[in-house]
Each structure stands twice: as structure tokens, then as C-alpha cells.
Amino acid sequence: MVENALVDWSRAQFALTAGYHWIFVPLTLGLAVIMATMETLYVIKKDEFWKRTAKFWMKLFAINFAVGIATGIILEFEFGTNWSNYAWFVGDIFGAPLAIEGILAFFMEATFFAVMFFGWEKVSKKTHLTATWLTGIGASISAIWILIANAWMQHPVGMEFNPDTVRHEMVDFWALVLNPVAIVKFFHSVFSGWMTGSIFVIGISCWYLLKKRETRFALASIRVAALVGIVGTMALMFSGDQSGVHAAKYQPMKLAAAEGLEEGGQRVALSLVPGIEIPGMLSILATHDIDGYVPGIQNMIHGYTAPDGTHNPSAQEKIERGKLALNAFRTYRQQKESDPVAANEARKILNENIHYFGYGYIDHPEELIPPVHLIYWAFRIMVGLGGALLLLMIVVLWAEWKQKLVHMKWLQWAALCAIPFVYIAGQAGWIVAEVGRQPWVIQGLLPTKAAVSSVSVGAVQTTFFLFVAIFTLFLAIELRIMIKAIKQGPEAEKQ
């Protein structure tokens, strides 16, 4: 039996690494679009001002990019060190997109980054601009392969269990790539990066306004960043809507936890905060039909029949069928050489119950309920901050257009102080996505407690605190270098 402490510390270590990594990734995605847009204006207008502006934000991009790589590499190693059972069980599927990301996207990013950062005055303007855009595109391509792997954990498709190798093996690569969850997750993550980059640029630019420095540079940066951020956030809202539909279809327990929904039904109200609801809205958002059926936590625990006649077994029944599948699997492995008849019968039982295989590791139905309060409030923090930041960008853009922003100190301070809140919104979103699917590391297929490596709790604890120290040091170094570059300002880029 796996120790609960081992599972908890392994999860904590991975969450720590992923959380730090996501500090750098969205800023990379957002700054890539903003600086490429600025350089495009330079090439079109032939105005050295835009070159100077693009180079400044490119410097901050490079600092962030370099530190982000370090945390990303560690994440991939952790699959082998702390999650070896997971790596063995589904490595044939999960490893493919990560390998493509490393071979294709990462090298693409690195190659064009070198041309972008060191190629000023060494290549033509159009060639350099192409390299800048391809660096950003490469970052997005890198993200899509990672998110394909993550989406497969949320909605596993394109595989088949082989009891002889004790592995799930890929049978349809394109089902993996075109997983609807992956497509939506990619756009949602990329557009959240646009928002992050935009808030960052707007906030730093407002700092210059507060210091009464580089006014033209600051206002021009705000104009570009706000436009990118507003477009990105609008697209983020659409992809978020689609994410809700997919959660209702493939991960209903996650959706129920995010809404604190104990008992579901038709025309289910949307909870804004405890005690304040919008009648029928959750059904609309989850199914795009006001009469759509949305199951609650207790419905899924005790079983339910949807209005269309579809029956969903109780959690206890799923667990029993899962244990039946596990026992059949063990019998097959034991008898396949000595008693082929018994082995074939066991394999038949296994195939009949394979969809419940993962439930065989679950001991009690209550284990299938994720931490409701955490997910409920994380979801509201994500949505609430996202809405507030969108409003901020609209107001800032309006003020800049009306030439009033330079006189609105309160708005400048609001934009500067907004920078940490965009990161809080992003981290809250990942809490909903990842904690919301617990107890599963792969939805309905493999519970987290069955995926960990056979290592000591002490070893995981030691590396956890070691990573805390290292990642915090990385972040401190990045912030110090960034702050120094910001204080120097774009004037340091003058020719």
C-alpha cells in the first residue's frame, strides 16, 4: 500500500515545479506577441522609435525565457523520478507529444531566438522580423504539445490497454492530437499568456508615467499591449466557455466541485458566491441549453439517470467493477501460460470492465470527491480577476486614447499593482484544472495514488525543499535583473 504521505509530497513537489514554471510561461507567450507587433510597426513605419521600443521589451522577454527553460526541464524529469508508475503505464502515449515538443518546438524556439536577440544589424529587417515572429510561434507550438499531453490526462483517447505489457498503448495518434480538450486548452492557455504579457507591459509602462520618464515610449507600449490584451481576453472568455462545456461532458465531478453543486438537475442555477445565484445559468453554460441536465456531487456518488435515459452507475458500482477488472487482470497474468482457457475467460471479464479499471484502486466513494471549497473559490478568483483585469485594460486604453492617462495617477497605480493579480488568476485556473480532477492523474483511468514511484517520503521531502530554495533563487535573480533593466529604461537601447 502506498503511503498517503508519499502521494501528498510527490503532488506537492510537482505542483511547486509547475507553479513556478507557469510564472514564466505566460509572460513569454504574451511578450512574444507584443514585441513582434512593435517590431512589425518598426519595419512598416521605418521609425527607429519602434525599434528601440521592441528591443526593450525583447530584453525582458529574453530574461524571462531563460529562467523559464530551467523549470520546464525539471518538470519532465519528475515524471521519471516521482511518477515512474505513471510513466510506465502510459509512457507510450504521454511521451510522444513531449518528445515532439523537445525535438521540434524547443529547437525552433532556440534557433530563432538566437537570430532575434543577436541578429540586429546582422540580418535584414524583414529576416529579423520573421525570426521574432517565429520565436513567438515556436513558443506557442511548444505549448500546444505540452497541452496535448495534459489534455490527454483530462480526457484520455486514442489508446488501448495491453495486459501483456501492462501498458496503455497508442492506437490513434491523431485522436490524441485532435482531442477537443487539447484544442480548447491550448487556446485558453495561450490567450491567458496574452493577458499576462499585456498587464505586465501596461503596469511597467505606467511605472514610467509615475516617474515622469519615457512618456512617449510608455504610452505607445500601453496602446499596443492593451489592444493585444483586450483581444486575447475576449478570446480567453470564449475558450473558457468551451472549457466549461468539455468539463460538463468529460469531467462532471470537476464542474460540480467548481460550482459547489451537491444536487444537480435541469435548469441548474449558477452560483456567483454563496447565497447569490443566477437561475438556469449553469445549465446554459454547461450544456448551452437551459433545460440541460447537470449532475451534482451526490448524483455522481449515488448514481443517476439523465433525462435522455442515459444511466450513470453509482461510485460504489464503479469501484466494484474496477476491482473485478483488476482481479481479472491478475488472473490473466497468472494463468496465461499454465491455463489458457482460464486466462481467456479472465481477459474477457477484463475487457468488459476495462472502462472502470482505475476505479479498482479506489477504496471509498468519498475519495472521488475533490476538495470542493478550494476549487470553488479558485474558480471565482480566476473569473473575478480576469473580468477586473479586462475592465482595467479597457479603461487604460480609453484614457490613453483620450490623452488623459498621463494625468490619472490613480489609474497608473492600479495598472502597476495589477501585475501580481494576473499571475494569481493564472495559478487559480491551474488549481481548478489540476486539483479539480483529483483523485485522478488520468481521468477515470489511473488514480494519483497508483502513479507514484516507489521512493522514500524523505527523499521526496528533501528534493521538495531543495527545489523551493532553487526556484526561489531563480525567481529572485530574474526579478533583480528585470528590475535593473526596467530602471535603466529604453534609453539604454539608443544607438
Q: Care to give the gist of this entry?
A:
By secondary structure, the chain is mainly alpha-helical. The chain has 16 helices and 10 strands.
Keywords:
6% strand, 72% helix, 16 helices, 495 residues, mainly alpha, two-stranded antiparallel sheet
Can you put this structure into words, describing what you see?
By secondary structure, this protein is mainly alpha-helical. It folds into 2 domains: 4-251 and 374-493; 265-361, no CATH class. The chain is built from 16 helices and 10 strands. The strands form 5 sheets. Strands 1-2 form a two-stranded antiparallel ribbon. β7 (304-305) and β8 (311-312) form a beta hairpin. α1 (4-45) runs antiparallel to α2 (48-81), α6 (180-210) packs antiparallel against α15 (419-435) and α13 (372-401) packs antiparallel against α15 (419-435). The longest helix is centred in the first third of the chain and has 42 residues, at 4-45. It is globular. The mean pLDDT is 92.
How do the strands of the widest beta sheet line up side by side? 1-2
Radius of gyration: 25 Å
Task: Give the count of helical stretches.
Answer: 16
Span from first to last CA? 66 Å
| Apparent shape | globular
Q: How much helix, percentage-wise, in residues?
A: over 70%
- The secondary-structure class comes to mainly alpha
Q: Taking all residues together, what is the mean pLDDT? A: 92
Number of strands: 10
* Number of structural domains: 2
